[in-house]
Amino acid sequence: MSSDYEFSDDDVDNVFDDEDIEMQDDDSDGDDGGDMDDFKVAPKTTRKAWEVQFDSLTQASIEKLMEKDVEHIRGILGVDESKAGLLLRHNLWNKERLIEQYMDNPDKTLIAAGAAMPEPEPPRPSRRPSRKPKASASPKSDTFVCSICFDDAPDITPLSLDCGHAACSGCWSAYITSKIRDEAEHACRCMAEGCGLVASDEFVRSAVDEDTYVRFEELLVRHFVACMPHLKFCPYPSCTNTVSCPGAASKTSLTTVVPIVSCGARGLASTSSGSMTQSQELTRQVTGKEHKFCFGCIIDSDHRPVVCGVALLWLKKCRDDSETANWIKSNTKECSKCMSTIEKNGGCNHMTCKKCKHEFCWVCMGPWSEHGTAWYSCNRYDEKGGVDARDSQSKSRASLERYLHYYNRWANHEQSAKLALDLFAKTEKKMEEMQITSALTWIEVQFMKKAVEEVDKCRMTLKWTYAMAYYLAKGNQKDLFEDNQRDLERAVEDLSELLESPIEPENIPTLRQKVTDKTVYVQKRNSIVLEDTAEGFLEGRWAWNATVEGFEDPVPQDP
Ligand SMILES: [Zn+2]
Ligand SMILES: [Zn+2]
Ligand SMILES: [Zn+2]
Ligand SMILES: [Zn+2]
Ligand SMILES: [Zn+2]
Ligand SMILES: [Zn+2]
């Protein structure tokens, strides 16, 4: 992840060992025990076991919180607003620690934050680089020569911070703009060598253009948010919202909850103001993709039901093994009967060869007839049966086969979800045409939309269940997990197939009934998977076959 912040998580953790009383007025307390209790209590609200409590905040409301802190420090330390801001930023917004340090040694604290100069020392011209011979600490009375660009034009304006190290306004502007734009740095120290004074917000405002100042304000907000363990900035491009999620503020909480949150915004922000009409803007807000992301890790999508540690482990594995796995992502396969090439062009895994009419499963290549009965075991890596069907001879081959089994299904759900959305776009168009040519109402042709959305959601759940199953230790719990996974997968594939059936005005009423019933069922199966997995995490029921951060070490077993 690209980071705008120059300190590591550890720094933040250390600074926030102390209780932050002010912030706790409107949030639940910061200690882990308290938060955990919140999650173990049977939900009195409608919140599900797999959901976390969170709030979304705009940039303006974060700025209000910052102002409140600045005001607080200003009152206690008796410094001006600008100094209070610099002190807080330098001390990572930890008010208690700042006050303590200031009381102990105010000068030292101010100097470290770049809010004051050290005691004046006699100038030491010998330390100046020889390439700046004309450099001058204070403007001469007759002509000013910029110490950076050596410009001595009579009309240039010398500018300096309180230290008096002057440079021309052009140099200041270029310097601060580059700090903000290129380095994402909000603390712009004086350009003079060895001078640690930081430019005030007022100075920055006067030195840069409006767009750069907007970026500067955003950097301040991002810095504040990064300092607060219970806050996270929305990772979607151009979005400036923040999410508050106290229940996922500590690392230990991430072994029991999957903190999927949303900043409240949708779609992509308009790049420049006025480039979108009002109705375009409205469409974006209504139909755009919700800004959903994980509060606990860097994954900017919903990875429920699996916890961050396992999800990240899986993604790393996929990255490392992507070369080997590449071939499997291919979109064509050969019919196992007549060997003619078949392209997958829908989300459904029930394939029928155009040439020989052989029906088979896209994922396991087995005959579809076996999938239609109670003996639906496509989701399991059945080691006994697998040995015959797959040519796994050596142990390393077997472990690759095992990985590919899970990876193939993982990737397929993602691919199928994409294809289903494409197909839906076509279907929706067709149905809207039918609305014109037949007696159907708009409402009557909308039933597919809900179903497609549900399939999409469930395929994301299924996708991550394969990451989970790959790392689950063998045993009863894994078997139960895979039972639930199989039931959801079966229901999703059924609904998916239904969505691809031909649509004619006369079959719409029956189709509608079938699709609606199946959608409800799929929803139910998805809830079962999400809920049971979430409860398992709270109960500490899941054991892994690999080392996962925050969990007990795995019991040795065969891979
Ligand atoms: Zn200059
Ligand atoms: Zn200076
Ligand atoms: Zn957002
Ligand atoms: Zn996560
Ligand atoms: Zn065939
Ligand atoms: Zn299959």
Automatic annotation (TrEMBL):
Entry's EC annotation: 2.3.2.31
Biased composition (Basic residues): 125-134
InterPro entries, A to Z: Ariadne (IPR045840), ARIH1-like_UBL (IPR048962), E3_UB_ligase_RBR (IPR031127), IBR_dom (IPR002867), TRIAD_supradom (IPR044066), Znf_RING (IPR001841), Znf_RING/FYVE/PHD (IPR013083), Znf_RING_CS (IPR017907)
Database matches in SUPFAM superfamilies: RING/U-box (SSF57850)
Acidic residues bias: start-end ranges: 1-36
GO biological-process terms attached to the record: protein ubiquitination
Molecular function, one GO term: ubiquitin protein ligase activity
Region (Disordered): 1-42, 115-141
Keyword Transferase: yes
Ranges where the RING-type domain occurs: 142-382, 146-188
Keyword set, alphabetical order: Metal-binding, Repeat, Transferase, Ubl conjugation pathway, Zinc, Zinc-finger
Annotated protein name in UniProt: RBR-type E3 ubiquitin transferase
